[in-house]
Amino acid sequence: MSTEGLTAGEVARRFGIAVTTLRSWHQRYGIGPSQHIPGRHRRYTDADLARLQLMHQLTGQGIPAAEAARMVRRPGMSRTDTARHGGGHAIPLGRAGTAARGLARAAMRLDATSMVDLLTMSVRDHGVVETWNDLIYPVLVGIGERHAATSRLVEVEHLLSSSVSQVFSGVRRPGGPARVLLACADEEQHSLPIEALAAALSERGHSVRLLGARVPPAALRDAVRRTGPQAVLVWSQLPGTGDVEQLAALSGVRPRPAVLAAAGPGWSGEGLPDGVERPTSLDAALALLLPVAGAPGEPRRHGGT
């Protein structure tokens, strides 16, 4: 840590705690920053962080905040093996950064308020793409790995997904014609990747139609015929939902969209109709769609879509 200490926002990202919670612990229990430089906000020293980490661990075990604060202030109180947060069910994150670890801790506590706060700050400061690549995706992968090994953490994944959807839906949607249509394949319920893509396009000033999860092929064809998008991207997470016939039916719609894309690991890559693109990341999907998404912030036309 730098000799100047950490701000409340930096501490919140590190521990996966809402800034409002940090302020409450400081004001009510005296568990807060001690370093003060005139004219600047107080900052957390190494000693402050050690106390805060113990406070965080104790409350994570269900100990009321007031009692946890008394324990933290008790002389000689220190971290013990039995107080390790997450135990054997912690989310594996590999080399993910501090912010992702903070999000994972909040997810394990089922702390939706902190997750939304952390994600909102990241989108505001770094944008949708970086938030997805550096925070959300590593934690989702880690949850998936832990679930595969233990059959647990379904509730963690659901609440994290709900928090991500809430934050992405808050990205300002511009007006103007929606030239991009995003949908999940038939029976595909994993819609977060296309929610991220819709938010990233909106962030850049482009209007998008997001049909969401489990779009039947007939409904998707009807939507394409009625709205005439320049680009259609269909997401499939699981092999059972990546039926290429859905794409073949779209290829026959006239006028055919300039860009037709199959995204996600559910598509095998074999037997796809000619001309169907296969973006393999959020960055790649953006690069594919932006050229046909229209002018950023284009005003809505009278009677248009």
Quick recap:
The protein has 305 residues and is α/β, with parallel strands linked by helices.
Which helices and strands, and how do they pair?
Layout: H1 8-15, H2 19-29, H3 46-60, H4 65-73, H5 98-108, H6 112-126, H7 128-150, H8 154-169, E1 180-184, H9 192-203, E2 208-212, H10 217-227, E3 231-235, H11 244-251, E4 259-263, H12 282-289
List keywords for this structure.
disordered C terminus; 4 strands
Architecture overview:
This protein has 305 residues and is of the alpha/beta class. Helices cover 48% and strands 7% of the residues. It is built from 12 helices and 4 strands, in the order H-H-H-H-H-H-H-H-E-H-E-H-E-H-E-H. The protein has helices at 8-15, 19-29, 46-60, 65-73, 98-108, 112-126, 128-150, 154-169, 192-203, 217-227, 244-251, 282-289, and strands at residues 180-184, 208-212, 231-235, 259-263. It has a 4-stranded parallel β-sheet with strand order 2-1-3-4, with helices on both faces. Helix 6 (112-126) runs antiparallel to helix 7. It is elongated and about 75 Å long. Mean pLDDT is 86; it is low at 80-88 and 298-305.
Structural class: alpha/beta
The portion of residues assigned to helices is 40-55%
Strand content: 5-15%
Rg is 23 Å
Strand order of the largest sheet: 2-1-3-4
